Amino acid sequence: MPLSTRDALLKRQREELRNLLRSVWPRSSFYREYYARHGIAERDLAEIDVGDLPFVSKAMLMENFDAAVTEPELRKKDLEQWLQEHRDPRQLYRGKYIVVHSSGSSGDPAVFVSDAREWRLTGMLLANHLPPPERGLRDRTRVAAYMASHGHFGGVTSVVRLPQSVFEVLVLSVLDAASRVVERLNAFQPDRLVGYSSSLAMLAESALAGDLRISPGTIIAGGDMLTGKMEAKIQSAWPARVYDVYAASEARCLAVRAPGEEEMTTMDELNILEILDQEGRPVASGVAGRVVLTNLHHAILPILRYELGDHAIAGKGRQDSAFGTIRSIQGRAAEALPVTLDDGTRDSIHPIVLAEFFVVDLETIQFISERPDLVEIHYVAAQDIDDRVRREFSRILELKAAQRTTFAVRRVESIPVDPRTGKSALVRIGEEPQGLGSTR
Q1: Contact yes or no for 150/173 (Cβ under 8 A)
Q2: How would DSSP label each residue in 174-232?
């Protein structure tokens, strides 16, 4: 009896997983030794399933980075230093590696690396879930991206690496003045608009007010949760096709919700995405669980049964598709940080800019706002890195034109966990500073 389409897809996933493991085993001492401690031998790889693998956390992978990578020339300290000194997302490490850094929703800094082949394959698979270029072969499709652009973040790195023969790209920073963003968009007239869900909703407000006069045919939202209210506002501003993308630095894209669909379609040709309960069992449709990721095409820094730090509600699937679905992503909301701009007006720094705050040797960070012109930064690190934290936040304030905001930096032993979420809050609003440390 022939396999169903879903069964065929799952069979292909298992084959690709086993091929990946056979490639990783001799080249990654971390995975080889870690699996051996869990009773997995090389002879088992031909029959293994993803559920047989032990879980890997972000902290574990970063602590063992040098032993986990399959290219011996890659060293975490070297990559971190390079990221600190080279901020242009178009730049390649050693002329061939694409490097992104991210803290993700857990607040722990991380570095991920791939090569052009892996990146290109991921892009091709993602393109299958998105509409074709608006201008076809006539002309290059104009893509405007509104996101954090001052470092090697996953979103902007993906955008600047779109094929130049097909796309003309304009990158706008969420740290830019709103008036400047509107002015450049009006001049560019994008066919496709890409950005964080909350940022796109703000652009929609400008369009509804009559300031922003563009007519994008496709809007791709990601980075933070696209709420029903945000989507309604975007659709009120533009009669465009809205795609909701669940992205991560570890795999670039995990799922996509196309227009008219209730659930996000998981990219099962790229990843094995598990939604598990606390005992590690798959949850039923409509039930929330933790997201565990296995990237089937990421061989340089293997991402195998990796605890992503997100929670999601499992979908019911679609009868007309072999792919799985996710109903919604949980736990990705965060506060913006109030600041005072150089002209004295109040504004805020987008939470994703803060979530992607990158400093070498930083473990965890929290931004505490007493008022819009006063911030205290608490961080956890094995050593004093006040100067590095101060320089990076000063750089962000300069890019934001918010240098009337003063701040203090304080190294702490730990950052309290919010009992409502089980995580430390990235931003705390309306808190009294607990004694100033080194101050700018």
Answers
A1: yes
A2: TTS-HHHHHHHHHHH--SEEEEEHHHHHHHHHHHHTTS-----SEEEEESS---HHHHH
Buried b (16+ CB within 10 A) or exposed e, 130-163: beebbbeeeebbbbbbbbbbbbbbbbbbbbbbbe
DSSP structural state of residue 71: -
What integer is the mean pLDDT of 362-385?
94
Tokens read off for 315: 């979908």
Q: What is the pLDDT of residue 331?
A: 58
Best CA proximity match to 406, nearest among 438, 384, 363: 438
Q: pLDDT-based confidence at 3, cuts 50/70/90?
A: low
Pairwise CA distance, residues 198 & 185, whole Å: 17
> What digits encode the pLDDT tens for the residues 125-175?
888 899 999 887 679 999 999 999 999 999 999 999 999 999 999 999 999
Measure Cα distances from 194 to 200, 216, 364 in Å.
Answer: 8, 10, 29
The two three-digit tokens of residue 369, written as one number = 């706002």
Across 64-148, where does the E strand assignment appear?
A: 97-102, 110-115, 141-147
Q: What global pTM score does this model have?
A: 0.90
Whether the predicted pLDDT of 434 surpasses 50: no
pLDDT digits (tens, 9 = 90+) for 393-426: 999 999 999 999 999 999 999 998 876 656 788 9
Q: Which of 303, 346, 330 is nearest to 246 (CA)?
A: 330
Q: What residues form DSSP beta bridges with 144?
A: 170, 193
pLDDT score for 335: 83
Domains of the chain and CATH, by start:
5-122+254-330 (3.40.50.12780), 130-246 (3.40.50.280), 337-439 (3.30.300)
The CA-atom distances, in angstroms, between 126 and each of 5, 161, 310 are: 20, 13, 21
